[in-house]
C-alpha cells in the first residue's frame, strides 16, 4: 500500500471514528429525551400507514391473478368479473408504472385495492339494472373476490408470525422499544447502549430531573454570555439581536414551566406544590416572584408504616392456656390489636397499617394478658417496646427487648416484629447528620435531616425532631453548591465531611460513613442543579498504577481510553454543542430508517419518532425553522430519487418556514437569521423545480392517482410556493400559464413514452398497411392514456376549477403529436382505399363523447381529413349501385333467392377490427357469415329462404343500401350539418334506387303477363311470385331506408311508398284479370248449351243416342274439374311463394269476388232461359268448390257470402228444383245443398 493510500485510509478511518462519536453523543441526548420527557408526547391521531408492497410481492400478486384468469383457482366468478380482472391485470399489474410505484416504496396493498375498486365502479355503473340485485351488492361481492385472489388460498392457512420491530412502529412505543429503534437509527451497539444507560442513570428519575435543571441552567448562562460578548448570529435586521436573547430566555422559562408542571416523581402520586422563589441573584430561574420564600408549612410529608408482630419469647410466668395479645400504635394515631393466642404459643404474624406525617414517628407495641376476675377493669400489661423507625431502618423482622413492669418474673421478655416505613416520592434522602451553618444551625449538633422536593425546582434540607410533622429548621437549597470537604478541626462528631456553599452562607455537614456521604452529596447535587459535579476525594488522588489496587471489573470490560470516552459522552455539557447540526444528522438518519422500513410512510415519521424529535428540539433549543428546512431538504432528496413523498408533508414544512421568514412567528420566534433566509430561498427555488417536474411527469409521479389526493396537494403547494409573501395570493393567470407549460412538456413526454411502450418506429418508408396498422394500435393506446388521465388525474379540479380546461389542452397537445404521425400514414395510403375508416371510427367515437375534446382542434382536423374520403366513397357507392341495378335487371332470371350469400357476388368484405360493421368494398358485395337479416321484422332462428324470396338483384340492392346507411350511421359524424346532409343524400339515393327497382319489376311483370296462357293450363310463374316479393321487400325496406326523421315528423324524399302501393294494386289487378280470362273461357264453353241454340240440340241428341250403346261420362265433370284444379294449384303457388300473408289474403279476396261476379253476370244474362242440365251441373260444382277452397285459404265469410254469391246460390237452387221435377235423376246427385258432403 502506497503512502498516499495509507493517508487516505487513515483519513477515512478518522472520519468514520468522528462520525461514530457524534452518533454516540446524539444517542446520549436521545436517551435522556426518552427517559424523562417533559415537553412532548407520542401523538395518537396520526394516520396509520399501510405495509408497503415489494418486488417479490408484486410478482406473487401477478401470478395469483394470472392463475385466476387461467381458471386455476377455486374462486367462482361470472364473465363480467373476469373481464374486469383481466383489464386490471393488463392495464395495471403488468404496467411499468405499477412497477415504478413498487420501486418508489410508496405503494401498499390498499393502493392496489383502490385502483381495482375505481376500475370496477365505472364498469358496474354501466351495467343494466337487475331486479333484486343492487349495484352496491355487486361491488361488495367483486371486492370480496378480489381480496380472495390477492391474498391467495395459502395465506389463510399460514400461521401468524411474531411481529417484527418495524411492524409495530406505527403504534405507541414503550421506552425500551424507542431505545431499540434509535440504536438502529444511529448504529449504536447493544453493549454501548448498556454502558450509556447505566452511566446516565436513566432508571433514576431524580438524576434525570437534575440533569434537565443543569441543562437549562447551562442554556441560560449561554444566553447571558451571548448577550455579554455580543456573539450573535447574523440576522436580517440588527434590531433582532436583543430579541434573540429574550427568545432564548423565554424558551428556557417555558421549559422550566413545563418541568414544573410535572409531578414530583414520575410514577408516583401527582404530588404538586406551589413553586416559591427566593430573591437570590444566583437563582437560575427568575419568574419575578422575588419576595416568595419557602415556609415550613409548604413541606408536607406523608409516610406509610407497616407493623408486623410475629411472636414473643421469654413468657414463662403465665399458665400455658392463659390468653395473651398485643396492641400497636403510632404516636398520635389509632391503636390496633392482634388476635388472641395462648401463652404456651404466643405467635400472630399480624400486620397493622398506619399513616403518619412524622419523619421520626414513635411506635409503641404492648403485650397484654386477660384478667378473668370479676372485679378486673382492664387487662394486665406484661411488657412494652417503643421504637423510632426511619425510612432507612431495616425492613426485616427483628427481636426487641421489652420493658416489663416491676416485680415481673419475665425479665428476658423479647418480641419479634418488623416496622417498615416507606419513603414518600418527594423525600429524596434522609438520615442523621452533624451540621452547623452561618445563618441556621449555628450549633454543631447531630440532627435528623430529610431532603424534600417541594416541586421540580424547589428542594429543602429539613431537620426534624421526634414526633413532629413540621421541620424544626429549613434550608432552601436554591443557589447552593455542594461538594466534598476535608475534616474540620474543632468539631466533635462525624468522620467524613461535606458542605453546601452560597453567597453569605456556609453549611458544613458530617456523617459517620463514607458511603452515606457519597449518597448525600449525590442527592444534594441533583437538588441544587449546579453545573459542577462533585468528585469523591479518593478519585482525585493519583495512585501508582503498579502499586495501586486495581478497580473492580465492570460488567463489560473496557480499556481506559474507551472508559474515558464513555465518561466524556455522559459528562458533556449540552449547551456547548451545536444542536442544529446534531439534529440535522439525527433527523436525516431517522428519515432514512423510516423510508426503509416496511411501511408506505410517504415521508411521515412514526408516532415514536415524532415524539423523540419534538422532545429533542424543545429540550435542546433547535429552532423550528431550521428543523423544517432540514426536513424539506431530506424529503426533496428522496423525491428527486423517485421516491413517493406526500406533498401535504412538504406543504406543511414549507408553509412553516415561509411564515417564519416573513415574520409571522409560527413557533413564537421573531428572529430570522440570514442563513435561514438564504436556505429558504434556495429550497424555494429547488422545490419549485421539483414540483414543476412532478406535474410534468404526473403520470409517473402520481401513477393511477396514487397516493390519493397527491396531485391536488401538489398543485396547492405549487401555488403556495409561487406566493411572494404569506398574504398576497398568486394571480390566477400566472398559475395557469405555469401549469400550461408543464402540461405541454408532459404531452411530449407521455407521447414519446407511448411510442417506446408500443415499440413503434415512425418510418415513412414502411408499407402503407403497416403504417395504418401502427396508427390504429397507437390510436387505441392514446385513447387509453387520455381516459386514464381523466379517470385518475382529474382531482386537480378540486384545487383549481380550470384544471379540467388545462387537462383538455394537454390532451389536444398530446393528440397534436399523434396527428403528425397520423397525417403521414394517411398520405401514403392508396387512392380510393377505405381501410382508414376504422381508424376514424375509433378516434371519433372517443372524441365525440368527451365534452372537452369534441369538435376541438384535433377533432376538426380529423373531420377535415375524412370529409373528402366519405364523400368520394358515397359517390362511388351510388354509381356502383346504379350500375348493378341496370346490369342486374337486364340479366335477371327472377328466380327466388334461397340463400342470401350464395346468390350474391363472391368478392369478400374487408375485416374491420373492433367495429360492429364490416364495410362493403367496391365494386360488388357479399355478406359476411356473421351478418344477420337486415329487415326489422326478421325473426331470430328462422332461415333466410323462409323470409326473403326476392331476386338476386333486389336483395343485392337492399343489402347495399342498408350497408351504406349503416356505415354512415356508424361513423357518428360529429358535425350536425354534414351529418344531416349525408343522411338526406343517402335517403334520397335509396328512394331513387328503390323507385327504379319497382319500375323495372313492374315492366318485367307486365311482359310476363302478356305472354301467359289464357286457358286453365295457366299457372302463376315463380318469377311472378318473385316480383311480388320484391315489391313486398321494397315496402318493408322503404320505412328504414327512405324515411328521414325531422323533428319527430317522418318526411319522405319521394312518394316511393305510394308508388309501391299503386304498383302492387296494378300487379294484383293484372293477375286477377288473367284469372278472370280463364274463367271467361270456361263460361264461354258452357254457353254452347244455352237453350234454343243449334249446338245445344246436337249435343243433347248425340249424348242420348250414344247412351244406348255405351256408358257415357257424366257431362260437365271434366270442365269443372279442370277449372277447380286450376284454382287450387294457383292458390297453392301463391300461398307458398309469396311471403306476405296480408297481400295473399287481399289477392284471394279480389280473385274470389271477381270470379263470383263473372258467374253472376253470366247467369244474369240468361234469366229468361232455363239452364241446361250440363250447365247446371258444371256451375254447381265450380261454385261450391270455389266457395270451399277460398274459405280454406282464409277468405272471410263476409266476402264469401257477398251479393253475387247469394244471387248465384238462389238461381242455381231454383234451376236445381226445376231440373229435379223435369228430369228426375239427371243431376246425378249434385245439389247446392248437399255438395259439401261430396268428395273434393
Automatic annotation (TrEMBL):
Signal peptide feature range: none
Region (Disordered), start-end ranges: 532-561
Gene Ontology CC terms, in alphabetical order: cytoplasmic vesicle membrane; glutamatergic synapse; presynapse
Keywords, sorted A to Z: Calcium, Cytoplasmic vesicle, Exocytosis, Lipid-binding, Membrane, Metal-binding, Protein transport, Synapse, Transport
GO molecular function: lipid binding; metal ion binding
Domain MHD1: 820-1001
InterPro entries assigned: C2_dom, C2_domain_sf, CAPS, CAPS_C2, MUN_dom, Munc13_1, PH-like_dom_sf, PH_domain
Keyword Oxidoreductase applies: no
Protein name: Calcium-dependent secretion activator 2 isoform X4
Gene that this polypeptide is encoded by: cadps2
